[in-house]
Design brief:
Number of domains: 1
Helix content: 40-55%
Number of strands: 8
CATH class: Alpha Beta
CATH superfamily: Divalent-metal-dependent TIM barrel enzymes
Structural class: alpha/beta
Mean pLDDT: 97
Shape: globular
Order of helices and strands: EHHEHEHEHHEHEHHEHEH
Amino acid sequence: MRIRQSVCYPMVKPASMPIEDLFSVAAEIGFVAVEMWARGDDFEKEVTLAHRHNLAVAVMVGHASLTEGLSDRRHHDRIEKELRLSIDVAADNGIPGLICLAGNRIAGQSDDQASDAAADGLRRVAPYAEKRGINLNLELLNSKIDHPGYRGDHTAWGVAVCERVASERVKLLYDIYHMQIMEGDVIRTITQNIRRIGHFHTAGNPGRHDIDDTQELNYSAVASAIAATDYDGYVGHEFAAKGDVVDALRRAFAICDKG
């Protein structure tokens, strides 16, 4: 199956570029979707604009706060309410997945205790997500450079959460850039855990910039490995272009256009 590529426009779009211009050029290049982080005041307008350009919305953030997340039971009541609302919004707008966040480490809490807590939080909403057909994608982020203290910083930890919940709708957002920083061995990890992955993000490392020959990841090989599986979700580009964003998106699309 050909990889379906999307553009994470809050990260990719320069401040000076109108959102409609980005959507138009993304569709022209061959992207089939865009992504958004927050559900702001212009949400409905942005979804309508994406659809006008024949772009789906691949994913959006499901609950507030990156640092106060699912691994802390004190936030479960709030997160449950926010996720239930987001599940309805996603289902009503044809958005297949939500981004969920582990939150930061708590002093004295072990990895195992944290995975139990995150699983308990996701169990609260997994049946509703199953009913409405929405994936809950627990995002893996690096705690070394960009998000110091973040709990969900290794694939094995995220897989343990998914296994504890045991729902077809609880998956991982595997961010290739973040996991290259934390553990490397990207292709083997993706291949072994593909059934647990509901969404991908890309960016060049180091720097979180363009997918080009100045960074260390072989994205052509990574994309080929993804295409060789039965993965049918999206691969979303989430980088800040060093130069012209249109050129950067054309290169990224061409490199990852596998299948």
